[in-house]
Amino acid sequence: MQIIKTNNYEEMSRVAAEKIINLVKKKPHAELGLATGGTPEGVYRLLIEDHQANGTSYKQVRTVNLDEYIGLPKEDQNSYFTFMKEKLFNHIDILPENTHVPNGMAGDVNAEADRYESFVHEIGGVDLQILGIGHNGHIAFNEPGTPFDSTTHVIDLTEDTRQANARFFNSIDEVPTKAITMGIQTIMDSKEIILLASGASKAEALKRLVHGEITEQFPASILQKHSHVTIIADEAALQLI
Ligand code: GLP
């Protein structure tokens, strides 16, 4: 596990964006695994800036997102589908049909989870997966207690996670109670993983991720077993390491 310590959020975003840009230049058909949440927003902004200034092309890139809320229409401001369009896809030359987010409005969400899992395998797996981390150690929406061998599935969001994400909604009551998420095994199958973290509120989680016991009670701890993980985090997030 490599750790890159940056001075601040902006530098964290820049280092991560450079890695993505280098991969896309080297491998135009790259399969990128993308994350939502506040943390990767700066990376996406820098990818857009680079695309506009230097013309880095995403025409052949395919993306698969980690997760989606169940019950929010795609057009809802808080759906991860809309997040990705607004924060990245609408501003680069990626083809809409090459971007993939689980369908949280599917009639049968369990069948949708199975379809998504099969799709990730069909495309040959993810070359580079971007991850954030929840305060309780969740990665994607894999909450504490999720089996390490889980594939894409439907999950009940914990109160803790709903509270943390309530800042994007008008009130906590509007935060969905369920989501479809890539499983921990799905994430571990990625060839390379970059985990981003910024700010003191993530310090305890990063300490447990790097030095803690590997346990399903703290999902991110499994990353200790992945052969190609880079943590890119700012000083504040790394203060306990
Ligand atoms: C959500 C997402 C995760 C993300 C986490 C942390 O629950 N499903 O993928 O890592 O929040 O979000 P933030 O980056 O806003 O702290």
UniProtKB/TrEMBL annotation:
Record: active site: D67 (proton acceptor), N136 (for ring-opening step), H138 (proton acceptor), E143 (for ring-opening step)
Name of the featured protein: Glucosamine-6-phosphate deaminase
Organism: Peribacillus faecalis
Family matches, as PANTHER family: GLUCOSAMINE-6-PHOSPHATE ISOMERASE
Enzyme Commission number(s) of this protein: 3.5.99.6
Enzyme kind, highest EC tier: hydrolase
GO MF, one example: identical protein binding
Positions of the Glucosamine/galactosamine-6-phosphate isomerase domain: 11-228
Pathway: Amino-sugar metabolism; N-acetylneuraminate degradation; D-fructose 6-phosphate from N-acetylneuraminate: step 5/5
PROSITE patterns in the cross-refs: GLC_GALNAC_ISOMERASE
BP GO annotations: carbohydrate metabolic process; glucosamine catabolic process; N-acetylglucosamine catabolic process; N-acetylneuraminate catabolic process
Reactions catalysed: alpha-D-glucosamine 6-phosphate + H2O = beta-D-fructose 6-phosphate + NH4(+)
Protein keywords: Carbohydrate metabolism, Hydrolase
Family classification: Belongs to the glucosamine/galactosamine-6-phosphate isomerase family. NagB subfamily.
Cited Pfam families: Glucosamine_iso
Role according to the record: Catalyzes the reversible isomerization-deamination of glucosamine 6-phosphate (GlcN6P) to form fructose 6-phosphate (Fru6P) and ammonium ion.
GO cellular component, as recorded: cytoplasm
